[in-house]
Amino acid sequence: MTERRETTIGFGPVGLAGWGLLVLGVLLRRRFVALLGLGAVVADVTVAELGGFKAVNESRSDASVA
Q1: Are 53 and 15 in contact (CB under 8 A)?
Q2: What is the pLDDT of residues 3-37, one digit of tens each?
Q3: Label partner for 39 (CA 20 to 30 A): which of 2, 12, 17, 62?
Q4: How far apart are CA 36 and CA 14, in angstroms?
Q5: What is the pLDDT of residue 26?
Q6: Counting Cβ atoms within 10 Å, is residue 53 exposed (0-12), middle (13-18) or buried (19+)?
Q7: 18-23 — which CB contacts under 8 Å span 24+ positions?
């Protein structure tokens, strides 16, 4: 039986705020605001403790093992 890995896209509050800052920074042409937003999105994707993308995918992989 082949193991099928599914990836769910889910952003926590840090990721959503990051997307907002990123879009706002691009629209207003403020590089610092855009970089701050991008940093928040990257943190949300890579740090599971923020409750975003990585946390959703880690909990799903742990549940399938048990």
Answers
A1: yes
A2: 666 655 667 788 889 999 999 999 999 999 999 99
A3: 62
A4: 11
A5: 96
A6: buried
A7: 18/42, 18/43, 18/44
Residue predicted with more confidence, 11 or 44: 44
CA pair distance 13, 5, nearest whole angstrom: 25
Q: DSSP letters of 34-64?
A: HHHHHHHHHHHHH-GGGSSHHHHHHHHHHHH
Q: Read off the tokens for 13.
A: 């509050």
Q: What is the number of H-type helices and E-type strands within the chain?
A: 3, 0
